[in-house]
Amino acid sequence: MKSPSIYPLGDTAAVVEFGGGISAATMRRIAALGQQLVRQPLPGLRETVPAYTTLTVFYDPACAYEQVAAWLRNALTASEAAPNTPVSPPEVVEIPVCYGGEYGPDLAAVAAHTGLEMNEVITRHAAPTYLVHLLGFLPGFPYLGVLDAQLTTPRRASPRARVPAGAVGIAGAQTGIYPLASPGGWQLIGRTPLRLFDPAWPEPTRLRAGQQLRFVPISATEFEKMRQMCRYKDV
Fold it and tell me: Which InterPro entries does this chain map to (predicted)?
């Protein structure tokens, strides 16, 4: 297991780099450090931001980097030494998706690139239980893993000026969901009627890092019914 490295990011942040690529094991180490930082707080801590292989720690500029780095090394030692306590399996969040057609305009392109039938693309995409590794790019945008290796497809050569909210896409070896309408270059294979982000909610994002997620294929008729029930805002 690779020892994490610590390095500065400007004068108000430090990065803890775990390496090891995208994996559930790496994410567990990042989450354990984040929890340890809550238990062992540093005056001046502003925010921690997890990513696939890093945890970035933002702090008050009055804090010296050497002080922050020493605090992080101590927290790392504690988090890495802690035993893995068995926990109950997390609840799996189900995300309904209407694949193909107007809801997934790039499904045929993904099928052509992978050499699979469109129905096989849908089956393979909906089969795994995904881990929400992080939220980023847009508020509430979940980066999910692990995508079936046969579905790996490069981004579109020309990004769209507008991707609708709820669009489910593939980019390289990643899959994710657009929570808001946005420009984007991911290959769109489906769309969910669920809203993933609303600043009026007590917790503005429906998903969070560490959750498990499963896609559930639905018909266009079911999509429109759920869309009305959710009072979906196409923004």
Answer: CT_C_D, Cyclophilin-like_dom_sf, PxpB
